[in-house]
Amino acid sequence: MSNKIWLSSPHMGEAEIDFIKGAFENNWIAPVGPHIDAFEKDIENYIGNDCHVAAVNSGTSALHLALILLGIGPGDEVLCQSMTFSASANPIVYQGAKAVFVDSEEQSWNISPLFLEQAIKDRIKKGKKPSAIIVVHLYGMPAAMAEIVTIAQNYEIPLIEDAAEALGSCYKKRMLGTFGDMGIYSFNGNKIITTSAGGALVSKNNVWIDRAKFLATQAKDNLPYYQHSTIGYNYRMSNICAGIGRGQITKIELRVMQRRNNFEFYKKHLSDIPEISFHKEPDADYHSNRWLSTILIEPGTVTKEHIIATLAKQNIEARCTWKPMHLQPVFKDCPYYGEDIAEHVFENGLCLPSGSNLTGEDRELIVRQLRTCFLNVSNAAFYTHY
Ligand SMILES: *Cc1c(COP(=O)(O)O)cnc(C)c1O
């Protein structure tokens, strides 16, 4: 359906085609080649803070490599934000380690420093200090990094930032992904920039990044024949995908601005509806890329299911917020620290169409349709029940 308004669709340009053409002309098609090195440099220049970058084939594989580099394995516990996409937690299980989930704080929707410290203390008391912390910057919103970095340092636990959704977001004017011992980005098709599929591992520690590149290309020893002294992975980004990335990253600042404008538009045209509250930046330290514009609907009024269905009738895609990991059947046996804040965001949260390629007409149509849900509250309740 060509006229469908998607939640977040790829926003492609001419530069990408030129880079891909270049790759074809020079026959650099494999997961090795000049675009990969150049794309890594582009990301390094953009995020700054002396970070090094390994481009890989997904955000999930970047996170998996981070855990491998920290030596996490069976018997280890990893603390992970519960309110997230499953890809934040799955690599813990790939490594045979145990995931321990932590609730969010109300203001950022990200891991609560309070519950994080509670969890660390309790795990230590139970006999096992956690081996890593995975913090997520959901929908581009920074987590409370000052507090979280302090906790990680005080307890000497490595910190991994899942910034899959947060390229271009800042906390205290510093790029997200550069605070932790390691950070990851995703360039999946729906993220703020895309390489069709792809991701990156970033760290100040160049030894880790070199090791990540080695592991991601099947861990072949530096010899004229195929010798392997450790288990490798086929996780490297292809030169074609990196070419797309080189074109995409030239526009990153514009994309952040466009997505922030989407949020401002929704806020301007929906704030008079008392049932809607916006996911605000808690204070001036927080600068979100607004990967997705998200809202909460007051419980007991119009349901999010009704809104999603109403928009779908007009060929507009909206989605529920992530379902917390501690409520997932697959993670039901994992420990959890917190209350019901993540659950509340899941029960009442809604992600609105947020692409940087939305037109003014698209946004007006979305707002008009959304408003109809609220102007007929009694009807809305009726339709969700029957
Ligand atoms: C998209 C995403 C990932 C995974 O990235 P892929 O490139 O799709 O593997 C991980 N964590 C979060 C929070 C994400 O949104």
UniProtKB/TrEMBL annotation:
| CDD domains according to UniProt | AHBA_syn
User: What are the coiled-coil residue ranges?
Assistant: none
Mention one GO molecular function: transaminase activity
Top-level taxon of the source organism:
Bacteria
| Keywords assigned by UniProt, alphabetized | Aminotransferase, Pyridoxal phosphate, Transferase
Q: Which SUPFAM superfamilies match?
A: PLP-dependent transferases (SSF53383)
Q: Which family does it belong to?
A: Belongs to the DegT/DnrJ/EryC1 family.
- State the name under which the record lists this protein: Aminotransferase class I/II-fold pyridoxal phosphate-dependent enzyme
